[in-house]
Amino acid sequence: MHTTTDSIHKEIVLRAPRTRVWRALTNATEFGAWFGVKLDGEIKPKARLKGPLTSCGHENVTMDMLIERVEPEHLFSYRWHPYALDPKVDYSSEQRTLVEFQLEEVKQGTRLTVVESGFDQLPPARRELAFPMHEGGWVAQLKNVERHVASR
């Protein structure tokens, strides 16, 4: 996939029906299982979900998501502060990036595309940290989704 300085684009074809992939993305418990976060709340438009990360040695960090769009079995998007891992830093004055998950039915199952955009709006020092971490992070997270939908 192509990447610019402002956005990251990744995709994977999952050998699972679109309904199954959708549930993995939009059920807060399932999202947390593959993403590594314990979210409190329901994924629905205009909702704000928060919860502690559950892996990678960042259990003291709280993820904060603002749900934007939920178009059943097609599009799910949210905004967050990327790579916001220092619990001593207040990220609230920074712009949030937009994460979009798009689902498309294909012959082999479901094509899942993730696009995270808005990195150019971050302070330069934060962007220099967040962008490369998320570039690799989305590769890993798509593999996590793949394992998750295959196991259930």
Uncertain segments are: none
Going by CATH, the architecture would be 2-Layer Sandwich
**Terminus-to-terminus distance:** 28 Å
What does the largest sheet look like?
6 strands, antiparallel
Tell me, briefly, the overall form.
globular
Q: Rg, please?
A: 15 Å
Structure, explained:
The structure is a single chain. With 152 residues, the protein is α+β, with helices and mostly antiparallel strands. Helices cover 30% and strands 32% of the residues. It has 3 helices and 6 strands. It has a 6-stranded antiparallel sheet with strand order 1-6-5-4-3-2, covered by helices on one side.
Give a short synopsis of this structure.
The protein is built from three helices and six strands, in the order E-H-H-E-E-E-E-E-H.
